[in-house]
Amino acid sequence: MSLALDLPRNGQVRGACPHDCPDTCALVTTVVDGVATRVQGNAGHAQTGGVLCTKVSRYVERSYHAERVLQPLRRVGPKGAGRFEPVGWDEALDDIAARLSAIAARAPEAIVPYSYAGTMGLVQGESIAARFFHTLGASLLDRTICASAGAEGLTQTLGGKVGMKVEFFAEARLILVWGGNAIASSLHFWRYAQEAKRRGARLVCIDPRRTETADKCHEHIALRPGTDAALALALMHELIVHDWLDHDYLRDHTLGWEQLRERALQWPPARAAEVCGVPVEQIERLARDYGACRASLDGAGPAAIRLNYGMQRTRGGGNAVRAVASLPALIGAWRHRAGGMLLSSSGQFPVQRAALQRPDLLAGRRPRTVNMSTIGDALLHPGDAGFGPRIEAVVVYNSNPVAVAPESAKVVRGFAREDLFTVVLEQFQTDTADHADYVLPATTQLEHWDIHSAYGHTDVLLNRPAIAPLGQARPNTAIFRALAARMGLTDPCLQDDDEALSRQAFGDAVDFGALLRDGFATLALPDAPFAQGNFPSPSGRCEFFSARLVAQGLDGLPDHLPNHEAIGSSADYPLAMISPPARNFLNSSFVNVTSLRAIEGEQLLEIHPVDAAARGIVDGATVRVFNGRGSYRCRAEVSTRAREGVVNGLGIWWRKLGLDGRNVNELTSQRLTDLGRAPTFYDCLVEVEADSPAAAK
Ligand SMILES: Nc1nc2c(c(=O)[nH]1)N[C@H]1C(S)=C(S)[C@@H](COP(=O)(O)OP(=O)(O)OC[C@H]3O[C@@H](n4cnc5c(=O)[nH]c(N)nc54)[C@H](O)[C@@H]3O)O[C@H]1N2
Ligand SMILES: Nc1nc2c(c(=O)[nH]1)N[C@H]1C(S)=C(S)[C@@H](COP(=O)(O)OP(=O)(O)OC[C@H]3O[C@@H](n4cnc5c(=O)[nH]c(N)nc54)[C@H](O)[C@@H]3O)O[C@H]1N2
Ligand code: SF4
Ligand SMILES: [Mo]
């Protein structure tokens, strides 16, 4: 109640960008007569620097979008047809509560929550929602869809999701932008890289696609998808044979050097060049540049690696991250605050997850875990044979699985089950919402409280609501509080309000007064955390060799694992397809924002001129992309942004806004990564053909 009183009629309100982006920008929303008129970057927040990306500078357009879902909706047509009628909140909640209670009484694990990072807020993410599902004893969800291979690789090497402070990239002399298109997906890191470039740093981009970031780097290494570990091992090979090593750092702060040395010596550059499909000279040159930065000599200056999640979406993604995360220790790069690497900083935040999510509410029950990356198979599973009960109800929030999960044909078939009860909390009528029994209108970041950690910097941000909820929209928390009450769940923690939850998220570890005053608070962390070792790993060292992996029956050392669907392994499907994000969308968010979709145009497939000519495909033609799992139609862009043998299907479109009501995930598979049980979106063989006139609509 007190929260609503905080809403200004006029003024500026500090907030946080909620989207799944490493930058977690500080926002300032201008409110005039109770209406948000403008969203800007907070100039007082160093990491934001007053600048937002194109997407979120359109936030007012998104929030007041004519297609916002602003009242509860109940399905009237067949599953998936997207036909709904308005219904009152009371009626909707009563019915949902009754349906879920009936299932919970019989088989609570038949209820599955499905959520990801539509908002990265800790409050509108897993707070009351987690408490609610824990109280019921519902299935747990393995939240693997994005980052868990890399997270596991990092954890098994450095000990956690830790790394350099992003601001110090500005002082590096050599920056490897590895597996990420920074200009599109972490603009604020790119500002620091640009600063370094102006000061004379060399920038190298390692990416199969010639991205806009690759264009702006001094060198582009266009390796085949899923071959990063081979490249990293060859770099180690060169560091070893030329003795570009920091022997003191290796002795004092690493574990398993002798074994790793032996492994790396099996990877001369010529072998890696063959696997990666790049010139051997490029590998040798990169090794020389990296070796020149070693810390034990008066070298060229610090070398920094900005690794991103794009390189861990293939079978060997976890091992690849292990290999790359090992590199800085070989040259002692961690000694300098501008040396080392960064994949994710999220492990540096003292988030009080147990206080927020209350796993104790399980009260000794141990529900099964459903992997969100294989939701297609899970929904189609008839139950048991180790699976547990057939899934009877799914509650989706902060995610759009029908568009973003792999192997869409199965995902769609699963969500189309007439006997599945589906509730979707959404801001928009997404492909997933089309498959709901009930769609419940959710507030946007302008309309609710939240608190945020980040994965690309180390500041905590508070988000205050700037405007009252539009229409009948409610925050996720309010919806789960209401459901809990109606289902007779009486633990008082199920009714904690959003301000209380915001305070619980970090407890005493962060000064809430500072957050209320400034909108952000910087964690007190050392500038060069691993200069003296002190890794958060079991040994306190950088673990080249992981005893924990051996205990799981896995290789203790990083290695190159060929893709599930390696180029050349199928005569029918000769092209490798990757599906990286389109610059003006954020996963499948923003696809319905007209001004942003206008920039992207149509669903595009970039194809190299040689591959296009071999198939009679001209620029701008409609093509059919297909493999054994499915097909979709899109527009071909004949371009050297694609390397030969690899096509780039830019994602992630709403299916219903695609050319034939499908998107790129029609082709991706549900096979998982080596570590972390993650999807292998970029490990996917396809064929492309010019669309026959008969097939065209
Ligand atoms: N504009 C925009 N920003 C985003 C997103 C978005 O959809 N749009 N998504 C957000 C999300 S969810 C995430 S997880 C983050 C990080 O998201 P990332 O997945 O890191 O996204 P990108 O920065 O586009 O980087 C992916 C890059 O990896 C390349 N790549 C593909 N396969 C390989 C490979 O095997 N090896 C190497 N070295 N590179 C490969 C692709 O060509 C692409 O350029 O970005 C976030 N930011
Ligand atoms: N082919 C292919 N597939 C991919 C990827 C790829 O690169 N290629 N990338 C993968 C990656 S990295 C990720 S992270 C996943 C992302 O997949 P998702 O996490 O599903 O992300 P979005 O597609 O952005 O969908 C988020 C939804 O949450 C809604 N939302 C936002 N805020 C709120 C809120 O406060 N309350 C409620 N109830 N809803 C809200 C938005 O409207 C949006 O529809 O996709 C994965 N899928
Ligand atoms: S999407 Fe990323 S760059 Fe854009 S405003 Fe949000 S945090 Fe900043
Ligand atoms: Mo992601």
From TrEMBL:
Alphabetized UniProt keyword annotations: Iron, Iron-sulfur, Metal-binding, Molybdenum, Oxidoreductase
InterPro entries recorded: Asp_de-COase-like_dom_sf, MoPterin_dinucl-bd_dom, Mopterin_OxRdtase, Mopterin_OxRdtase_4Fe-4S_dom, Mopterin_OxRdtase_prok_CS, Prok_Mopterin_Oxidored, YoaE_C
Highest taxon of the lineage: Bacteria
A GO molecular-function descriptor: iron-sulfur cluster binding
Lipid metabolism as UniProt keyword: no
Cofactor entry: Mo-bis(molybdopterin guanine dinucleotide)
Gene3D superfamilies associated with the record: 2.40.40.20, 3.40.50.740, ADC-like domains, Dimethylsulfoxide Reductase, domain 2, Formate dehydrogenase/DMSO reductase
Residue stretches in coiled coil: none
Signal sequence interval, chain numbering: none
Stretches assigned to the 4Fe-4S Mo/W bis-MGD-type domain: 10-67
PANTHER family in the record: OXIDOREDUCTASE YYAE-RELATED, TRIMETHYLAMINE-N-OXIDE REDUCTASE
Family indicated by similarity: Belongs to the prokaryotic molybdopterin-containing oxidoreductase family.
Protein name per UniProt: Anaerobic selenocysteine-containing dehydrogenase
Species of the source: Pseudorhodoferax soli
